[in-house]
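Anyone opening a protein record will find just a pair of labelled lines. The record below illustrates this layout.
***
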Amino acid sequence: MSRASLIKQLIRLGMRAVPNDLAMYRMVALAGPILFRPPKGFQIDSTRIGDIPVMWVNHAKQCSSRVILYLHGGGYAFGSNRTHLELTCRIAKAARAQILMVEYRLAPEHPYPAALEDAVAVYRYLLAARIAPEKIVVAGDSAGGGLTLSMLQALRNRRLPSPAAAVCLSPWLDLSCSMSTLAETLDKDPLISPERIRYFANKYAGVHDRTQPGLSPFFGDLNDLPPILIQVGGDEVLLPECKLFSRRARQFGCRVELQVWPDMFHVWQFAARFLPEGRKAIHQIGMFVREMSPV
């Protein structure tokens, strides 16, 4: 049995023990900092931008002036900078970049557009700090990947300078769930089910139309967006929306690099410590960031 197959079996077993309940999801997330620990050689500084908790991540040796603004996943309702710290450390080293992690407000206490407003506010901070937009890459996983692409559209609509590029790891792009709940990979995905994904869509969207671009960037105007890298697993229910988004974006003239990794699961990059495909994917992210934002 391959490592990927073993990890997928473990995920399936774990998900059977987790009811579709927000308190339980948040309790499980508390184990994140225990299971996923940052490698040695990083400087990690927690601070605030206004009322928004953020975390700066820098490798002691392999670093540069480029900045990755990172938006964590968790269905817009759980997760934190701490749960994603090991992942971002690995990305920071591969990209030779500083990472600014954003702990945006979570639903349902703070439904849409709270997360989007927080992400834009932190981007404005970077610009005000005189960090050139061509030195900034926006990135995120899962809900954070969808938030990344909603943010790009919001920046354009507000006539703010565009970042150099965006990186999306298994992004959730359609909160109407019209594609994911009909995906042919439903039986293969060990993590996401129609019931679970609708649950989080309800928490974040609240009374809003789930097809509006701020919630579902798939349905937005894709003109004038920077280059985008999307990594998605071949076993994910989010695969159809990632494929269709990439096709739509190219029709608008956007440069999109879609990487479909066979047999991989949702945000498999998290398992880079154990999984060669996770390390290879992060290496690809680093190469893309360095190409899009040279120093």
Observations:
- The mean pLDDT is 95.
- The domain at 3-292 is CATH 3.40.50.1820 (Rossmann fold).
- The CA atoms of residues 231 and 259 lie 5 Å apart.
